[in-house]
Amino acid sequence: MDKKVTDDTRELEDLAKEFKAKKEELKEIRIQHTRGGIRGRWMVNALSFIIGIMAIVIVFITTVTASYYYNNLRENLMGRATQSAVFINTYLNASYEQFQSAAQSFVTDYEDKDKVEVQIISSNGRIQFSSSSFSQTGSLPGTADVDQCLEKQDVAISSGRDSRSGERVMSVSCPLYDSNENLIGAVRYISALEAVERQIIMIVMVCVLAALIMILVVALSNRYFIASIIEPVKKINLAAKEIAEGRYGMILHKEHDDEIGELCDTINHMSSEISRAERMKNDFISSVSHELRTPLTAIGGWTETLIRSGASDPEEVMLGLGIIQKESHRLTQMVEELLDFTRLESGRLKLNIEEIDIGVELYEAVYMYKNMLEREQIDLIYDIPDDMFMVNGDSHRLRQVFLNILDNAAKYGKDGGKIEIDLSADSYTVRIDIRDWGQGIPEDELPFVKEKFYKGSSKQRGSGIGLAVTDEIIRMHGGMLNIASKVGEGTCVTISLPLLTPGMRETEDTQV
What we know:
The protein is α+β, with helices and mostly antiparallel strands. 59% of the residues lie in helices and 16% in strands. A 5-stranded antiparallel sheet has the order 2-1-5-4-3, sandwiched between helices. It has a 5-stranded mixed sheet with strand order 7-9-10-12-11.
């Protein structure tokens, strides 16, 4: 015994720990999802996306622009160096002395010396002549293209920082030959990259400025758009809190026919339905309390009377016992109705389906009510048909349906003085009409009479759940319960159930 208690205690402690862990996990998730609110999350997500796209665009434009400018400059320098080398090799190298004089004149008279520097490089890799006064004769060039050109005797290109001046340059060297095809040097073109890079930076800055303007526009438009969503959501949230605190029936003002407007309609409908359900629940509690109090008062009163009188008067004893029995039966019916309702709500209402004659079940219900209706001075008109109407159903539940409808007809149709019952069938359906000639149901209440707790404007006793249970039982049988009524002309309740035809019965027997 002690071991079992210990195990149970340990199991409860484990469950408590697990519950606490789950609670902390849910709390963490809730904090994670609520931090910053919709406005903050929307702005972060939207701006992150826009900034990411803008960054990709800027990187793409920068890459394309830099490639375009660098390629143009490279092609320009290579074109100049190649053309100059061809010119010098063809016309200016008849002798070494002629080459020296012509090369110096070529460099000195170069027209674009303010944009591009041209140099004549000797075969040992030193500067012989330069169009720029900053390049000293006999010095080594500051880039690697000269050595590559002289070594491979081919056009060489170099980009980078000039070791002599420290500035970024692009240079192209092309080999020069004498009349005997001997390498005598190279012609070299050098261009500073400062102007090109300044142009690229300007384009990038323009793109960044355009991106910032676009981000600002997106942020402002998103702020306005979010405000148009958050403000109605705040109102809806306040309304939902008030509804949760018990202010049922409050209505939100809808401004637009969009998703927010649809949400307002849903909240308004929910508020109205909760308000109506709350009223119905209160009416139900009040009605059930009154219904329970009445028979209990009668039972208690007659019990005291019989005890006080000592049961000396046999007639009084029989009267009291009859009333006690009647009220006890009423209490039993109410308890059974409430139990059926709880089974219905929890999905535990089950049917014991078998093949039955619905006419027999209806006759037994009529027979049970006939004497009571006679005492109430209500005529019950029912012509028992000769045919059998076989259905698959639960005899106990179907009899409960008939008794409930007859009880309603007796309560609400008493003024009419009669109840008519008709049983008929077509090829597929059996139909039962139970009609009274009482006060009827108002047209605006008729759509709600099958809802739970609903009693409408009637002052008759009842819990308001009997017809809801009845409708569910019929639907579980695959049938339909329809109610037609008109004020002052009575009510007709129609039950339709699938008829078990001979062909269907033969099929079922074969399957069994």
